[in-house]
Amino acid sequence: MLIQWSEKYETGVSEIDNQHKEIISQLNRLHDAIVSGLGKDVILDILEFAGNYASKHFSYEENCMNKYKCPVAKENEEAHRAFIQRFEEIKTQLSGSDVDTKIVLDVYRELRDWIKSHILKVDTNLKSCVGKLS
Ligand SMILES: [Fe+2]
Q1: Which range (48-52, 81-85, 91-95, 123-127) has the least confidence?
Q2: Do the domain assignments include residue 29?
Q3: CATH code of residue 25
Q4: How many other CB atoms sit within 10 Å of the CB of residue 70?
Q5: Cα of 37 to ligand 1 centre, how many Å?
Q6: Residue range 98-114: average pLDDT?
Q7: Residue 4 domain-assigned (yes or no)
Q8: Would you say 24 and 17 are in contact if contact means Cβ atoms under 8 Å apart?
Q9: Which of 19, 75, 84, 102 makes a 20 to 30 Å CA pair with 58?
Q10: How far is the CA of 118 from the centre of ligand 1 (A)?
Q11: Ligand 1 mean position to 45 CA, how many Å?
């Protein structure tokens, strides 16, 4: 099922929201490719995106959480480290073998869960912190 960005994903920082919209659109792109049987063709692209995304977006978001003294700042950083580690594992797995459907589906599920759990339960805590300081 495609994910539609909505207010419930808002963090109170438009730059972060735009970056989250981007990861949602990449997930939807992967979803469409899987449905059309082309998952294997886009997976490397998606992983490259996820790697670049992680390095730029995570540090931007971590700085914001520190700036606004968000109580989940530490939890957020730890989750980001775990995400990076998991995607490094997947990249290593992929470099030694042909892409199989299982990996494509694993990446899809993990990205989807990341959006639904991490963004909704951790990142959105920023909203009340931004409100307090601004
Ligand atoms: Fe985060």
Answers
A1: 91-95
A2: yes
A3: 1.20.120.50
A4: 25
A5: 31
A6: 92
A7: no
A8: no
A9: 102
A10: 6
A11: 22
The alpha carbon of 119 and the centre of ligand 1 are apart by a number of angstroms equal to 6
How many folded domains does the chain comprise?
Answer: 1
Q: What CA–CA distance (Å, rounded) separates 70 from 62?
A: 10
pLDDT at 70: 96
The whole-number pLDDT of residue 3 equals 94
Instruction: Indicate the residue type of 56.
Output: K
Locate 111 and state its tokens: 């990205």
Q: What is the pLDDT of residues 18-77, one digit of tens each?
A: 999 999 999 999 999 999 999 988 998 999 999 999 989 999 999 999 999 999 999 999
The residue segments making up the domain with residue 69 are 15-133
Residue 3, domain member (yes or no): no
Q: What pLDDT is attached to residue 99?
A: 86
**Residue 66 included in any domain:** yes
